[in-house]
Amino acid sequence: MTNSIINFKGQYTGSNNLFGGIATDEMYLVRAECLAREGKIAEALADINLLLSKRYKSTSFMPLSETNISNLLDLILLERRKELLFRGLRWMDIKRLNLEGRMISLIREGADGKVELKPNDNRFAIPLPEDIIRLAGVEQNPR
Predict the structure, then answer these.
(1) Rounded to two decimals, what is the model's pTM?
(2) Domain ranges of the chain
């Protein structure tokens, strides 16, 4: 910890090798989310419960039994947020979820005060490199 800022230092896999691919837990979460969005509650529950059963001791695991599609989707998205921590996926999740009206804001407080990134703010779009704009003839992302 430096200057009251907590930094994470480590590896996802625990080894010295960098991993840049998709992992099994992410695939279960993607499939569970898609199934929930299609209204396939039993199948979505099967995927999320299988994933959660591997996280907890068998004696303490309580399977989810949600029957409301909206509540089930919220549970799956919460598990996605918890399970995929430090994988660099949250930024894109926030962008796609805000497009469907989830209204997720990012608020950070620092030495310069409080900064808020409101849903669908142009600052969610990362500026394109100038050489790409020049070579491809595309417009710069709005700022």
Answers:
(1) 0.78
(2) 19-87, 90-143
